[in-house]
Design goal:
InterPro entries: Tet_transcr_reg_TetR-rel_C_sf (IPR036271). This is TetR family transcriptional regulator. It is a single chain. The chain is mostly helical and 99 residues long. The chain has one domain. 68% of the residues lie in helices and 0% in strands. The radius of gyration is 15 Å and the shape is flat. The two termini are 24 Å apart. 8% of the residues are buried.
Length: 99
């Protein structure tokens, strides 16, 4: 969880896209990083579906997009302190999309 008051300054990628995303070069670099992560997660989900460790009912690209959205959302909420009490339950629920 990203919480500045505990020495964790948060996610540079999320902070950068929120604060600097409108600058064309910086925004493009940050969007590329997010896209690279999405592609990697989708590939890992696809591999997991092939070996049976991840359920095959959902599209890997869609699940990757959902997981990234949840991950980045948790980072933002962590900075506000509003998601800390239920973080483990939230993560466990989010990972059920891989069943």
């Amino acid at each position: 969880m990203s919480r500045g008051d505990e020495g964790k300054l948060g996610c540079l990628l999320v902070g950068g896209i929120v604060e600097l995303g409108h600058f064309s070069h910086v925004g493009a670099v940050l969007r590329e990083q997010i896209s690279n992560r999405r592609v990697l997660i989708a590939r890992l989900i696809s591999q997991g579906q092939q070996d049976g460790s991840i359920g095959s009912a959902s599209d890997p690209d869609t699940v990757a997009e959902l997981l990234l959205s949840l991950l980045y959302g948790m980072r933002v909420l962590g900075k506000t302190g509003s998601c800390t009490a239920n973080a483990e339950v939230f993560v466990a629920t989010a990972l059920k999309v891989l069943d």
